[in-house]
């Protein structure tokens, strides 16, 4: 797969190019609306294409965190056909941090067919980098109308792209403001769901948390002995790998580590690898475990202050990070994950920890895999432990429930807490993670650019701007981003062929996120090749 070219300099029109796109999982023919009035038909078309933009945006999940999932669909003017697929001239999504935006990819794909066409965006573009590529791509492509599903949830970005488009003479229709037909209800829901992690994070100041479990038809997650391999089938386990690949972190409890010795990697799913977090108050964990192998993925052990200090040192020697809490609980762990910039967290824990997380109101959605098996056992563990409810009327009702058959299993999913309404707007300062807890984000002499979507995100290592730096010989080389340069120079200057190969591998990475993943992984695998003691 070819690496995309670097973004154009400020004020320079983007060149036409081809970018890698993941295939649509099921390329079905878009339904044609029934014959109704011209206005209703136009709204029906808009709703269909906006829903498609949300589906395209969903292909970003797990690849762009902490950025939103952006999707753009460009539909040419009405054609004499009922097959709305034929109207689509181009589509694109953000496939990694610091890569060309969805609007640029869709416009390049559409080519001349973009002139006079309508662009459908599930979310208002976010001008994170100061180069307004998203807006300029649509303007230069000749787009005459833009339909936006949601305004950007962050205050310092909200409304800016819409205003810029309108200033350039493009008609912009925002669902719920300019377009208020009931026909948009399903499309708007799709736009909300595809960026639910960002909306929950902005509203509640904790990462979007999903509880996943697999149970038998009689509600057991394991036999009375604790044996649980396997409750669900192979296809369902493959879906779990996909869920992990969409998450920034996966959380389990100490019992799961002792009983199952999991790996918690997104096996068979290329790209993003989540951080693995073990919650254990006593740190009563095995000396050897798959999770202590940090070559595949990073591991954090969250424990109570002072627990088994000698064992903590052994974990640190293996490369496992240990974080102590005064009182270990799900709410404080989620606040910690928020400060680290995590957007989405997957809980794969047992009943005791899942009950504690639900009681702490940090679980937002549930994925329940139900297998057609009966295991029985009065003492066999269940997915959720004691919640203190004595009446069925106290039961938590899931919202927006959906069902899907996966081979012989049934997957039921639903939200515990509704997707938040972000009007009024959440102040942008709430979206700045505290890199240093001792530093207040309100300090006037501090500029925060830890994430590319911060107000000054153009200064982030992940910002998609190339830099020119001299090598050891004094020759000037171009690096795609600062992150590429930083990760590669962990190994620069080491007189070893393998180190030089790693530098080349990092430089070829097609996104700063991929460069960071390669650099951190190789540093853990080959610490002897690191020129200086550089932190991960």
Could you describe the 3D structure shown?
- The structure is a single chain.
- This protein is of the alpha/beta class and 536 residues long.
- The chain has three domains: 38-194, Cytidine Deaminase, domain 2 (3-Layer(aba) Sandwich), CATH 3.40.140; 205-415, 3-Layer(aba) Sandwich (Dihydrofolate Reductase, subunit A); 466-529, no CATH class.
- The protein has 14 helices and 16 strands.
- The protein has helices at 38-57, 102-110, 133-141, 160-167, 185-194, 196-204, 234-245, 254-260, 309-317, 330-339, 351-359, 482-488, 497-507, 512-525; strands spanning 71-75, 88-93, 118-123, 145-150, 171-174, 208-216, 249-253, 275-279, 299-304, 321-325, 344-347, 365-371, 399-406, 409-415, 467-470, 476-479.
- The strands form three sheets. A nine-stranded mixed beta sheet has the order 10-9-8-7-11-6-12-14-13. A five-stranded mixed beta sheet has the order 2-1-3-4-5.
- Strand 13 and strand 14 form a beta hairpin.
- Helix 12 (482-488) runs antiparallel to helix 13 (497-507) and helix 13 (497-507) runs antiparallel to helix 14.
- 43% of the residues are buried.
- The model is unreliable at 1-29, 32-36 and 423-444 (pLDDT under 50).
